[in-house]
Design a protein that fits this description.
Layout (H helix, E strand, L loop, with lengths): L6 E2 L2 E2 L8 H30 L11 H4 L4 H18 L13 E7 L9 H9 L4 H5 L1 E7 L13 H6 L10 H12 L3 H17 L5 E5 L3 E3 L3 H13 L7 E5 L14 H25 L1 H6 L2 H22 L1 H4 L5 E4 L9 E5 L3 H11 L6 H12 L2 E6 L3 E3 L11 H5 L12
Parallel strand pairs: 3-4, 3-5, 7-10
Antiparallel strand pairs: 1-2, 5-9, 6-11, 7-9, 8-10
Helix pairs in contact: 1-12, 3-4, 8-14, 10-12, 14-15
């Protein structure tokens, strides 16, 4: 019985392997899978390079991430400035009688020979204009009960550059307590006392803002004009009455895909699935050719194999790579770390001093105190991007067991600045 032959690429049925529309669909499925695999692999290799310095990324490389690029340049500039101040016989510019900001830097003698505070002060002052320097009241606090124990105490630069070198001027009872803290290595308790003491002395200068910094940081070039602009913006913002601080340092390591936001990530992933599925179905309805090339199997592969694979790669690349924070002032009420530098408005300082006095005998740190207080009273916390400071200390001043965390407290974006 005669039957109508199928046309298969010009070959009659029965003589060559048939390529029907179903075979074409199967072929398009293979092409789809191969193309997706190639693209995914290419993006994977790109992410290995692009995300190597992102601490929130699967591709993070420790050696390149902690490479000191810009901070070495700033350190050199800072120490050059300090050496110049050591040998200068000319009167250096000091603060005016109406400072905009007081810079308080508590420093204790490190057990190692290196005293980071030299670089801290040098980086803060190097490059300032005379007008900028006059608006700053610089108050290093030599926080050893015997200041002679600190190697910098008699170095010329300290007197040449400081508006006031703060030492303990307290009652005998308080000094005895501080000695017990010092000799017993109760660093957290002593640092809480020191923080309140330095806050009080900075407040007494009449400055509009009080900056509290640790003694093992470096400031980037242009830090002060950027900080002034940020503070003036906050001064006129709706948050003014509830402002606790402007953070001068943060670490991106805590700004990754935090588990507290899992519902948000899941929601956006589901939205992506719905958008892709809607586009594919609309394309099939509008075009018969696309309908033939996108059978149900291909749609399922795109939605439930390819999309999850690329979404996974998105998360593997890291949040700082995929969603980098824009430059400027941002509210940061969570995931802020650590206490390397804060700028407080003058009106909050008396209340903060009271808090430190109450917490002096408790076993937690200044940054923990600030966050608990802010959460309890709904105080607003802000950060300036990019970071004004870099933490360079490798030996913790908090006591035993903290050197490893000290060496990894790092702002990765700081190193991307150009010298």
């Amino acid at each position: 019985m005669w039957r109508k032959p199928r046309i298969v690429l010009g070959v009659l049925d029965g003589h060559e392997p048939a390529i029907s529309w179903s075979n074409i669909a199967r072929s398009s499925t293979s092409i789809l899978l191969l193309t997706s695999a190639v693209l995914w692999t290419l993006f994977y290799q790109y992410c290995r390079f692009a995300s190597s310095r992102d601490p929130t990324s699967y591709f993070f490389n420790f050696d390149s991430g902690y490479e000191r690029r810009y901070s070495l340049h700033r350190e050199h500039a800072a120490y050059t400035f300090i050496e110049s101040a050591n040998t200068s016989s000319h009167a250096l510019i000091k603060s005016s009688t109406d400072p905009f900001i007081c810079l308080g830097i508590a420093t204790i003698a490190r057990s190692s020979s290196r005293q980071y505070v030299r670089g801290t002060v040098g980086s803060l002052l190097a490059g300032l204009t005379p007008e900028e320097r006059k608006s700053i009241y610089l108050m290093p606090f030599v926080a050893n009960t015997d200041p002679e124990d600190h190697p910098i105490f008699h170095e010329p630069w300290l007197a040449h550059l400081s508006d006031r070198i703060l030492e303990y001027d307290v009652s005998e009872d308080d000094l005895a307590k501080l000695r017990r803290f010092e000799e017993g290595h109760h660093f957290r308790n002593k640092s809480m006392y020191d923080y309140g003491y330095l806050l009080e002395k900075c407040y007494d200068t009449g400055a509009s803002w009080v900056a509290m910094m640790e003694d093992d940081v470096l400031a980037r070039s242009g830090w002060y004009p950027d900080a002034q602009r940020a503070l003036r913006r906050l001064q006129t913002s709706p948050a003014k009455g509830h402002l606790l601080y402007l953070r001068m340092f943060y670490t991106e390591a805590l700004l990754g895909w935090n588990s507290e936001e899992w519902a948000r990530y899941l929601g956006w992933s589901f939205v992506s699935l719905l958008v892709l599925l809607s586009i594919l179905l609309a394309a099939r309805i509008r075009s018969k050719r696309i309908n033939r090339l996108l059978p149900n199997l291909n749609v399922a592969i795109l939605c439930f194999v390819c999309l999850p694979a690329f979404v996974s790669l998105y998360f593997m690349a890291g949040r700082i790579t995929m969603q980098p924070p824009a430059p400027g002032v941002h509210e940061m009420n969570r995931f802020g770390c650590c206490s390397q530098g804060f700028i407080f408005p003058r009106n909050i300082v008396p209340r903060l001093i009271e808090r430190t006095e109450k917490a002096m005998d408790e076993d937690y740190y200044v940054d923990m105190l600030l966050e608990r207080w802010a959460d309890a009273e709904d105080l607003r916390r802000f950060v300036l991007v990019p970071s004004l400071l870099q933490h360079v200390g490798r030996k913790s001043s908090k006591g035993w067991g903290y050197d490893e965390s000290a060496s990894t407290t790092w702002n990765f974006g700081f190193e991307d600045h150009s010298p």
